[in-house]
Amino acid sequence: KFFSYMYYDFVPDVVCSAKPLGGGLPLAAIIGNVRVEDAFEKGVHGTTFGGNPVACAAGVAMLEEIEEQNLMENAVRVGAYIKAEVARMKEKYPQILGIRQHGLMIGITVNREASFYSQQAFEQGVIVNATSHDVIRLLPPLIITEKEAKMCLDVLEEIFAAEQKSDQKQ
């Protein structure tokens, strides 16, 4: 789903989006319903850098690419694959306490400092983020394939397995 609110049974008055819209260029959008739109007077809300044509063209191209490449469907499919694989790992490795997921945004709750896992993964060429002391965040690009996801998950599984083996020796 394109926006996270679409996972729930409501439609917000306003949706704000920024980072992903411009593909690295400065671009943001405020999307509102008619009631919100009516609150703005024409010409009152603006910015000296607003409406940059290069950033706007990049945003349009990005939206077209998402649609043409069926990247939302890819996010659902690969996200489900990743979640299933992490759930499988959770059964094997007690370090994994929980999994949260919306599309390709996946949180893995662990029983120790998440930065341990992010550092170990980085040393093996995989970038994951420790968003809090006990959550590893996986946030791959929309274009990721199952094969690429498997490569990353294999690295995480190796880390969990090595840690479990080390804990059993102690």
Count up the domains: 2
Distance between the termini: 45 Å
Give the uncertain stretches in residue-range form.
none
- CATH fold descriptor of the largest domain: Aspartate Aminotransferase, domain 1
Describe this protein's structure:
This protein has 170 residues and is of the alpha+beta class. It folds into 2 domains: 4-68, no CATH class; 71-169, Aspartate Aminotransferase, domain 1, CATH 3.90.1150. The protein is 45% helix and 17% strand. The protein contains 5 helices and 6 strands; from the N terminus they run E-E-H-H-H-E-E-H-E-E-H. The strands form 2 sheets. A 4-stranded antiparallel sheet has the order 3-4-6-5, with helices on one face. It starts with 13 loop residues before the first strand and ends with a helix. The relative contact order is 0.11.
Element layout with pairings:
Layout: E1 14-17, E2 29-32, H1 34-38, H2 53-68, H3 71-92, E3 96-102, E4 105-110, H4 114-123, E5 129-132, E6 135-138, H5 146-169
Helix pairs in contact: 3-5
Summarize the structure.
45% of the residues lie in helices and 17% in strands.
Structure keywords:
17% strand, 6 strands, 170 residues, four-stranded antiparallel β-sheet, alpha+beta, two-stranded antiparallel sheet, Aspartate Aminotransferase, domain 1, 2 domains
